[in-house]
Amino acid sequence: MARLEAMRVFVKVAETSNFAKAARQLFMSPPAVSRAISFLEDQIGTSLFMRTTRSVKLTEAGQRYLEDCRRILADVAEAEAAAAGLYARPTGTLNVTASVLFGQKFLVPILTDFLDENPEVTVVATFVDRVVHIVDEGIDVAVRIGHLPDSSQSAIKVGAVRRIVCGAPQYFAANGVPKTPADLAHHKIITSTSAFASHEWRFGGAQKQSINVSPRLNFSTFEAAIQATLQGWGLSRPLSYQVGPHLMSGQLQTVLSEFEEEPLPIHIVRPAGRRPSAKVRAFIDMAVDRLRADRFIN
Prior knowledge:
Elements: H1 3-16, H2 19-26, H3 30-44, E1 49-51, E2 56-58, H4 60-83, E3 92-98, H5 100-117, E4 121-127, E5 141-145, E6 153-161, E7 165-167, H6 169-175, E8 190-192, E9 200-203, E10 209-212, E11 217-219, H7 222-230, H8 244-249, E12 253-255, E13 264-271, H9 278-292
Parallel strand pairs: 3-4, 3-5, 8-11
Antiparallel strand pairs: 1-2, 5-13, 6-13, 7-12, 9-10
Helix pairs in contact: 1-2, 1-3, 1-4, 2-3, 5-9
């Protein structure tokens, strides 16, 4: 069996932690997958997996080999793409990710326009409220809100947003306006249990502080929390872009603005160290121009 094909099988088994699942995803038989792993182990001279009746786990050598296999397979894919002319014009599948609300509000119109301009490209957009590992999950371009700790990514800043406390005018008319973060203890709080949400509300300004709120209303999505805030039930703490139109229309009002933390940057990121394909370059160029021109994030 060709070693490169065996490496692809090995990576899939490592990602699924299951020989049978890897076989189904690769459209191979389970014995063929087992033979590919045995072939690699014979070539290397060590075990790549610890196998039990219930689980498959990488050995220490297997973990190191996994990183090398991913790098080698990426290099091969890049060489094949260059030979096929994929760096000359946008073609193929573009994998993009962003948080749910940001993707829906900002990326959907960019993606549809991008597809209209590039008929040979297909887009797979993954909008999830978690940090996606762009290399492991095969992502070409991601939009990240917040400071970037990972220096292995190429990043372009396109804007910034603020974490704000807001409520509807009718709520403030009935319950008063908090003057300090400590006053939030006397107000009805709405939160979301989605990723990135927290009951610890941090504030900046002249004196940084953290307040642990006690929400009476918890939703599984940001959208629902914002809707309850619009109805005047209580206060919530979304990112400014999530409620930008509502703030402009006066449906919501911000409070405690002088205590806000520093704005959070928004970046478009892609894996660094490799020449981006034409589809990636074309999409990033369009997205940077459009996002930098949007008033709700700049």
